[in-house]
Design goal:
The complex is a heterodimer. Chain A is of the alpha/beta class. Chain A is 20% helix and 27% strand. Chain A contains nine helices and 15 strands.
Chain lengths: 305, 356
Amino acid sequence: MNYLNDMSEINLSLQDRTNAYRQLGANPFRPWPARITSITQLTPKEKLFELRLIDEKVREAFTFTAGQFVELSIFGVGEAPISISSAPSKQGFIELCIREVGTVTAAIHRMQCGDVVGLRGPFGRGFPFEDMRGQDILLVAGGLGIAPLKSLINHIHDERHDFGKVTILLGARNPSEILFRHEFDMWKHREDFDLIMTVDDAVDPVNPDVTWDGEVGLVTRLFDRLDIEPAHTFGVICGPPVMYPFVVEEMRKKQLKVDRIFVSIERRMKCGIGMCNHCAVGHQYTCIEGPVFSYWDAINLQEAI
Amino acid sequence: MIYKIISKGALADLFAGLQETYDEVVGPQERGPAFVFDKLSSVDEVRLNYPSTILPPTKYFLPADERLFRFDRSTGDVYDSEPAQGTRAILGMHPCDINAVLMMDEIFMGDYVDPYYETARKSSFIIGVSCMPEPGHLCAAFGADEIHRGFDLFLTDLGDRYFVSCRSVPASELMDSYVRSCEPSAEDINDFQERTKRFKEAFAPMPKMDQLPLLYGAKYFDEELWERIGDDCLSCGACASVCPCCYCFDVRDKVDPGGKTGMRHRIWDSCLKSEHAEVAHGHNFRPTRASRVRYRFFHKFVGNFSRTGKMLCVGCSRCGKACKVGINPGSVIEALQKEYLPDTAGVEVFKGGGAS
């Protein structure tokens, strides 16, 4: 009995699971040391860390697809699964966008350039990038959900000629919580990306003087103005759990098929390799069959969304 | 497979052979009113005619607390990540427990290979032993009362002698070198067949399992049913601790007193613990006891079944004995089947497995 049979066809386009651990015959529980080479404070709570694996052989073997994640080790504190934010088209380093929310993330927030952390991965399945080529893409990110989508957006950006219309809807609670805002501010004037940013509340609690001239309201409100060709469009969603049903509903109203909508779901993977069972949803493991699922697969998994 | 007959007295020869060949020999022993798997220093300590042990021998492959590696916090160096070396003979595993280990093999030596599990598994020599069903045992319902692989030697008790099945080359060599044995006679084979028949007949009527995944789907949204079971559940995780098919673990770091170095280890965990499905920001995908109990049995009866075609339960009844409030697979199966399959529900077997 093949458990993949009940998954939608597009997710079946198997990504190469011959990952770095297999190539190197390494112990998948053993983290590889990586050095922090750059830290950017994105918002009061989030920082972007650039990491370089110290071992050259490991660095070369470490290839990934947008949507995959790593297990970040802070020795003495523990591990946390973090999505990769940099594009697979950029080799030699990875970027992790990390919100200070638990013990591991707080520990890396206290670290500085030159400090060493551990990395395991990349794990899981990412977005079906190859299937997306030649298609229109509609990306919807809420809050920290932009972290894994940033990798996909940058990958599309680097191979832009291969894609049709690319629309990005970016939501956050208030202006200062918009991640990568400076970067995206510059994108607003680009003709090859339709980027709309929206905030729940235009008044910024941290900097009340900051003015906001963008949209106000939930991302779902932006769908009315979108012109979508459902047969040639992929929808991609990542954000807080509460967001998914509403955004999916909007995409369905636009006639997007359930297996052309992709969601990245969050679980606390402890091992990343399908053993510890912490990330189980229904009969699948987020760390093996996910974290990216087609919406069709996700609705077949109890308690997924 | 090679078959031999040995006298009960020859068990001492077998034990001597195991002690010389393996670093450690473990087996079931008496501890007060219960039985446990522990290190054996003499053949007199072993009790092969035991009903069940508190913990299953799975603990030798996935220990309750296991070192993964040591680390240096400042340099990020990782060392001592090699799996523990040493060979072990496990004497006296019941068919259910061997079946459970075979299921664990698919999880820990499947898509990815866990080097710790694999090393422990490959350096183990397994000697199974026949048993008789006790009240509450559901192994026959799960097809776990029989075992045809996964052991090196299997001893079937014929009263005054053992009928020995040799499955592996090391087992055959051990038998040749240490144990006085003879070829089975027509009478031995007849006794073996009789014994097998008696064993099969000793089971109380078993619940039908083939419709269980379907019924589970139908009852998944039966809030009343899961609330009722969840209301009883203490979320203590005792069932998971004694389950030969449970393998959830947590990964933790322990820092040495000096603060510079430390150890990462993994410890048993349970999906019944409230924080099991919690993610960052404290969102919990299974916040209630009802949702966790429902998940636990879902994973056993449907989740793993969808992946591998096997249910993650061998019907050993340890969980039912460990549970303080009487939840056991039998009672859950009964609750699932009651409405839809009135004929098969409520058979006697369900009454044996609960807390006493």
